[in-house]
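User: Before I run my own analysis I want an independent prediction to cross-check against. Here's the chain; please return only the structure tokens and, at the end, one sentence I can use as a sanity check.
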Amino acid sequence: MKPAAPFVLVLALMLLQVARADSTPQTMTAVPDKPAAPDFALQDAERKLHRLSEQRGKVVLVNFWATWCPPCRREMPSMQRAWKKLQGRNFEMYAVNVGEDEDTIFGFTFSTGVELTFPILLDRDALVIKAWPVIALPTSFVIDPQGRIVYRAVGGREWDDPQLLRQIRELMDNK
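Assistant: Structure tokens:
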């Protein structure tokens, strides 16, 4: 496979997700065998370090995204609404930006029209994403309190959708 082939495949999958965005059901796919979530330590724009392993005991939504990705851009306001509904309980949310710098992300956050208050982490060298089963952007994972991947969602979602919130709350209540 030529070096550009993986990029072309990811781009093609992303464009497919854009085309299906309006018809995508608000669901997540259960992950068989519930593998352990790969740990990471990433900084946010203020250089605060966030470690996934420190969130053990909580349900964690990990979202991989980029500012150039249309479905990623569209789902951010709904992620903020979900964050407002779930924060303060046994819940954490990380939006892991892949390969972009702080200035690019900062400019994007103002363009959403919504103040994003959940942690936005920087995978500057795209090393963390390689450890996760990401096939397109955005891809999100829900991690249970034991640190296992239980759900995956490829493509944009409305994260404040009652069905998605119900699935997350069930994990929070069954820790």
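Sanity check: The first strand starts at residue 29 and ends at 30.
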